[in-house]
Fold this sequence. Notes:
The complex is a heterodimer.
Chain A: H1 3-20, E1 45-47, H2 48-51
Chain B: H1 9-41, H2 45-71, E1 83-85, H3 93-122, H4 126-153, H5 166-174, H6 190-193, H7 199-220, H8 226-238
Helix pairs in contact in B: 1-2, 1-3, 2-4, 3-4, 3-5, 3-7, 5-8
Amino acid sequence: xxxxxxxxxxxxxxxxxxxxxxxxxxxxxxxxxxxxxxxxxxxxxxxxxxxxxxxxxxxxxxxx
Amino acid sequence: xxxxxxxxxxxxxxxxxxxxxxxxxxxxxxxxxxxxxxxxxxxxxxxxxxxxxxxxxxxxxxxxxxxxxxxxxxxxxxxxxxxxxxxxxxxxxxxxxxxxxxxxxxxxxxxxxxxxxxxxxxxxxxxxxxxxxxxxxxxxxxxxxxxxxxxxxxxxxxxxxxxxxxxxxxxxxxxxxxxxxxxxxxxxxxxxxxxxxxxxxxxxxxxxxxxxxxxxxxxxxxxxxxxxxxxxxxxxxxxxxx
Lengths: 64, 242
């Protein structure tokens, strides 16, 4: 099993990327009118908290 | 239960690839929405681009899953055509965005990467191996997005709200069936050759990935995992042996 290598490949490499950009962003002030995932082809947003996702339970999406 | 009472091997293989098609179509829409939300939140351009790329990747992955689903005799396929949001809409955007990215990338995509790494060792056939390799390569980037976001967000968002939510989040990623009894065919070793992780191994990979990647990752970023570990211990204590 190669799972221990994943900690380095995913967490440490990802964290380093985030830290590298810690001082900056595309803007300094978060948009106040960000309304989430509403800009969709069909305009629909399902609330996983009530409908559930493909993982079978509310709380988070499923994986492989 | 005898093997004839439960689903056949082909049913399980087709059903798994059909479920993956749903997972990938859902992920494509979610990453597309997350890219726009990251940009609106002022996240660095490389993170926005990672989410945009992930959305495109997942569309391609869904096509691969559909092709394999058809190849193994699957018939009825349903995708996800709306963004599914797991965080309550009453939350403020920083918490909602953080929850969605953590659930999608740090948990689900990390677990998917681990499953794909496992499958790469057992899959049979050049085409299937090439597809799994392509997907594994992409999922690495999808997972990194979450960890990169948390590192960037840490000085901007109080991440302590995540700790009590982690049990529900990781349980949602697993789905209830992973700790439940499985039909005999779900543990057949031939499943690996067809790109499906047998039930018992899937649980093992899921648990080990939480313990060696996901929980240490959260701790690295200052998110308390004691409640999530307590949930995992309790769940394993009452789970059906595989």
